[in-house]
Predict the structure.
Amino acid sequence: MQVPMSSYLVEIKPQIQELIRLLEREFDYISVLCTDVKGTTYRVSMHQTTVGDYHFCERGFVVRAWQDGSYTEYSFNNLTDAADLAEEITSALKSEFQALKALGIAQIESPLVQEEAIAKTMQNEIGIDPETVSAEEILSHLRKLCDAGAAHEGILEFQSTVSFARVNKLFLSSKKDLMQSYAFSEGSLSAIGTENGKQNMSYRSCSGLKGVEILNEMDAIVEEIIAVLYDKLHSDPVTPGMYDVITAPDVTGVIAHEAFGHGVEMDMFVKDRALAKEYIGKPVASQLSSMHDGAVGAQQVSSYLFDDEGTLGTDTTVIDHGTLVTGISDLVSALRLGTTPTGNGKRESFERKVYSRMTNTYFTAGTDKLDDMIASIEHGYLLESVQSGMEDPKHWGIQCMVGLGREIKDGKLTGKVVSPVTLTGYVPDLLKSISMVSDKEELFGSGMCGKGHKEWVKVSDGGPYLKCKVRLG
């Protein structure tokens, strides 16, 4: 089915257009982002059942104005008479400009955006509309998944969760008329188990521009996460050292996200907080490596028509056969740097600031077969089940926590498992060591990404299997 447009946004559109007309009497540029995001999260465990709003539910507006070389913003969620609202916004924004001048605080100047006239809409397709399925039907399916997992020996807790979200956004200015409505789903299963006094957990997720049909994908991964849990319960610590490894697509994704995802967010270029700024046009990875980011480069949870500044989404080649080509940017950062915005301006909500943020970030597939990659390793590990990652964009350090590593000796998996595993290294060393790239890629979008320790947004990441050399500990 085609995801319908928000009737609320359609209804209030003429009122927002009138608000823009009134505000343009006082400011050189005005745009308004209108958001209407709704969704539901269902969770069933062995001990409780909950139903609640999806994390990013919101309905509100943010006005952006340009005056005297600077941008300022005003957000609200109570839409009143356009004339009254225009007066209120004008007073608030001009008071802010005056207060900054009175305090002697210099504002960072930004060029006035030169927009082209454009009118576009987007509505994506999903299978089964969550709004046509009762909560009890969804919970019943999750209970069956939970019961299937809990039936295994040694399981202390098993949890099944699914979220359905519908994102509606309207962006208007004197030249732009953009509207989008898209839906996505996220499902996850987790298990905690014990054996011989040892305790561990396993987790697996799935996501996409889908509806209730995602529950069928979850059916297929119950036995998989139980098997991984038992592997971890029988695992040994890894002996620290440098190893040839193969990263599974989920681990590849977190490397892309942490290594050259955050590191090429161009608002960090403006602040001189990213080393990547100095390496544009230079080799930073193996010639076998290419990395993309973009709202239209892949179909996942961060695929959209336009970003939160009204810039159309793109497919940005960040690394092209080892060479760092460009970063990803929001509109204002691009204006300050004199570059073209890439459609990566995202807000946690209408009440929060725009930052340069990732969308769908991934390494592209190569030509190698996984069996050949395994056969090429004398002693190393197949790393899978990523848990978390962090990076230092100023110095290019990276650290990834991985759930387990499957030992490879003389080109064969031995059956021995090590867990947990910490992957660390210097980003260019890691990426330049890539020597094989599998012929299939996969993206994952069930998590959230923070800017520093806050400002959470939806992203996806992934890629193919990569063979590279890293330090494990």
Observations:
- The longest strand covers residues 176-195.
